[in-house]
Amino acid sequence: MQKRSPQPEILLPRPGGGGRLFDDESLDLLSRVLDDCFRLPGTGIRFGISGIIGLVPGVGDILTGLAACIIVVAAWFRGLPYITLVRMLVNLAIDVVIGAIPFLGDIFDIAWKANRRNYKLLTRHLAEPRRHTWRDWCVLLLMATTIALMLLAPVVVLVWLIMHFVYGLRIR
After folding, report:
1. For 10, 18, 24, 90, which has the most beta carbons within 10 A of its beta carbon?
2. Do strands 46-47 and 38-39 pair parallel, antiparallel, or not at all (unpaired)?
3. What is the dihedral of CA 79, 84, 85, 88, to 10 degrees?
4. Tens digits of per-residue pLDDT, 124-141?
5. Residue 49: what are its φ and ψ, rounded to 5°?
6. Residue 159: which domain range?
């Protein structure tokens, strides 16, 4: 008699495609877990693990930022227009950069809820695929202006320092 080696069990996928990473239910759950799965007792303030993990200096905000990228990648795979993807990336960048400020950044994370914002952008686009609102364009214009001012600020300070120390001019 010949011995048969055990065969692995193959589990069939659940009906409706449940359990996939990029389906609506998984993305909604991810955004809720990251942004508002807990509530402070006696208040309406909700926060998620992003606010808790963000308390770890340096690493916390990077880890939650990487987890939040799943929603943006899912939006890209679903074919969202670039303006919506850029807006989602701006939400995420604001969350990670300001969230890196110790303690105050974590309070901002709790209030900003970038993952819920991004999930709403995703579902809005899926409901109305060709509609871009004036808000999308305003956010991009505001961000471009902010980045330009941030890049220009060191130049202005440098010119002022040169004028002040080299030429002895005082700006009143």
Report:
1. 90
2. antiparallel
3. -140
4. 888 887 666 777 778 778
5. -70, -20
6. 133-172
